[in-house]
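Structure ticket #2291
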Amino acid sequence: MPLPSPSNLSLWKRKLGQVPDSVWDQTNLETLVLADNDLSYVSERIGRLKRLRMLDLGHNMLTSVPEGLAGLEGLSDFLYLHDNQLTSLPLSLCHLKRLRYLNISENAFETVPECVSGMASLIELRASDNPITSLPDSLQQLTNLRELHLRNTKLKSLPESVAALPQLRQIDLRGNPLRHLPAAIVTMPCLEKLDLRWVDTLELPSWLADLEARGCVVYR
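Resolution: structure written out below.
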């Protein structure tokens, strides 16, 4: 009887340059780590890995990701795309309805990609260290989101729609050139932490005191 194929594969920091074709034949994989391999391209064949729950493509040189990622509808745990050279993501990635954690930090995004708003199960979104100047109102569709990390971006304000995120517990806005925060933030029922450290462009609104009075920690 043949031995079952492994469900976890880590090729972390192997200096691969490109992913071996044999990886795409391992259709039983549930976790795949391809981080830190100088990758500039990922094959559309990645879409064959239907059982993947976690995929790590961080610390590479990707300027795009394949449409095939949209076929990984079982991807539920983590998708790491941080520390690449991405400016956009395929709209089809909105089909990743089960994904709970997405890290797109340290790229070249000027806004959070529209596809993210379709990832209905997201609990944590990390988009720090990008030249993001705006957030789409469609992010309010992420009704399960608990953590929003936007450290060291180019945001001057937040849209009112952020306050419509009913489960949001943490907002990290450190190091942004903020000039305005919507007062509706004070109405967010679950907010526990608002981080405004290293923000020296914002006149702190008086309603922050009301936020703190109900138990939210505001870091200045």
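Closing remark: The longest strand covers residues 8-10.
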